[in-house]
Each structure stands twice: as structure tokens, then as C-alpha cells.
Amino acid sequence: MIHKKIPQRMCTGCMEMKAKKELVRVVRNKEGEVSLDLTEKKPGRGAYICKQKECFEKAFKTHRLERNLEVKIPEELYSRLREEIPSEE
Fold it and tell me: Mind listing the pLDDT tens digit for each residue in 26-82?
């Protein structure tokens, strides 16, 4: 029996490796615009976060998201991303 390899990514909040499908992708395009990529198809540099508000807050406080995406993220964009993150309760 052949086992299919499940792609793993690291959450920028809790720093745990998880299946790519369990995470939300935040992407920076060539113009430097940062947005949530729920389709996982947008071009650009991506960073992954768990679908939990705590992980997003931790990534925000430690500036890991900014370091991973190599761009300064304004406060209002963080607020918008915070609202868009689908939570798993």
C-alpha cells in the first residue's frame, strides 16, 4: 500500500508543524500587498497560521508574520486579517 505524503507547514504563531490543509495562508504579492489566501492559489510569498485566534495574536506580537513575509504590516491590515481568519471552535 502506498502512503500519500501530506504536505506540512509551520504555523508562525505556535511554531508547530501541521498539515497544510489545517492552516490559513497569508500571502504577500510582488506589489507588497498582504492578504489572506483561503484558496491557497494566490502567487507570492506565503506564511501559515493555525485557524485559532491565539496563534494569530502570537504571530502578531512577535512580528513573525512580518519577518516571514519580509514586509511591514500596518495595524489596520492586522485588524482586517484578524476578522477574516476562520476559527475552529
Answer: 999 999 988 888 888 999 999 999 988 888 889 888 999 899 999 988 888 888 888
8-84 CATH:
3.30.1230.10
> Domain ranges in the chain?
8-84
Measure the CA–CA gap between 9 and 7, rounded to whole angstroms.
7
Please name which of 15, 32, 19 lies closest in space to residue 69, comparing C-alpha atoms.
Answer: 32
- Name the grid cell of 40: 491557497
Could you identify the residue written with the cell 512580518? 66
d(CA 87, CA 60): 16
Strands 34-37 and 8-10: unpaired
- Reduce the DSSP state of residue 26 to 3 states and report it: strand
Instruction: Show Cβ contacts of residue 10 under 8 Å, excluding neighbours closer than 6 positions.
Output: 16, 17, 18, 48
CB atoms inside a 10 Å sphere around CB 59: 26
